[in-house]
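Sample pair:
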Amino acid sequence: MTPTEAPKDLVGIGIGPANLSLAALADGIRTDGIRTEGIRAEGIRAGGTPVLNTAFYDQHPTFTWHPGLLVDGTKNETPFLADLVTLANPASPWTFLNFLKTRDRLFPFYVSGRLHIHRAEYDAYCHWVADNLPGLHFGHQIDAVRWNPERHLFEVDFTQLDTDGEAEALGRTYTKNVVLGIGTEPHVPDPLKPLVDAPGVPVLHAADYLQHRETLLKAPHVTVVGTGQSGAEIFLDLLRNRPTGHEKIHWLGRTETLAPAERTPLALEQLTPDHTRYFHTLAEAARDHLQTRRADGSGIDPATLTAIHEELYRRTLHGGWPDAVLTPGVSVRTAGRVATTKVELHLEHIRQNTRSRLTTDAVVLATGYRERPLGRILAGLDPYVRRDSAERPRIDAGYRMLLDPSVTGTVHVQNAERHTHGNAGAPLAHTAWRSATILNTLTGANPYPLPHRTAFTTFGLEQPHLPSQPHIPTARQAPAPVLTPLADSR
């Protein structure tokens, strides 16, 4: 950083959907918290008040979001309104609907009547935002974050990478605040870890499915481990593209049924900010107990289950049954290679208390994701971080890590707070809300007024402290519209 360069107001580490949402909502916000939709920084400074000075860094050369799972025909499990910004600011220029408008696709989308969009389309929308939003720096690997007590600023060290991912230059920037949005990483069960990196028989995580799809289609026998949404989508894709009567595919997982995801409105209220507030007020032991249970809203999309059954049924039309085995309630105890061409899985049925062996030519692990460890990046801040009894960072309701009072800046987290905020924050539907909460907390103003209530369900007998509810007039009391100057309404 050159001596004349002003410190940033906010540096974001990682540019997945979470921090991309934050960057989009931060675009045009003045330092006094006033929104100025889409107006560039130069124009704001001419008016006297600068916008937030932000920078976001990611080590990938371009935006990337689960590229190995963009299987043809797969859809997001949340409606299109759960884009990067709409649920916090429908007037933002970075909405999915505005993306469609810039592509002359708004009317075809309207006519289609779609609520859930294809995953590839969501990915294209995020790419559009990332390609047009200022202040995003791809090809930058963050190496360390430290607190500089003399300057009362965070130091963020990074390595600039070339197109091949090799180190090209070192750099440092200073910032008043940091937000960590480094996302999750593929989870591989311990019994299968030795097999994933070994050469020979393909044993891979679902995150890499599309890169190895042709190899898997040619394999004599394939096993999919994991009975969630990703496992179902991969099983269906393999099933559709393997010859009738010679499918030779196993699908197994620990859950006791191939359970449909609960999508009724009152059940989905478990994924609203109201439930997040409730979860955050619970004692640590109570939160940990709830986290051990199956996440609300998880399971397989009913349309995917229906498509699997239809495909299996279609293959019985000329007699016989498809050579496909679907077995829930099974765990993989151990695994090993047979010579260099096959894998042997040692299975246990949970309820029957029986064991068996399965020999296969390829394994796809649809075993989910876990929060990416923050230790490497935050090693320089470790003396300042306040932790709970399990040595996890304590995080307040505004998604701020609790730090020593001598640190005057803030460190916010995204997708690293399930132990304090629960699983409700994980779905895309929560992205805009969390980003708006962070910006409201960061500015000390209220650039994105958020509703005080988001669910009909009341979680718990004692409610979190909230500001008084705004007065909502009845139809007979509806006030006359009030016109405000454009500059004040933006």
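Residues 39-46, 467-490 have pLDDT under 50 and may be disordered.
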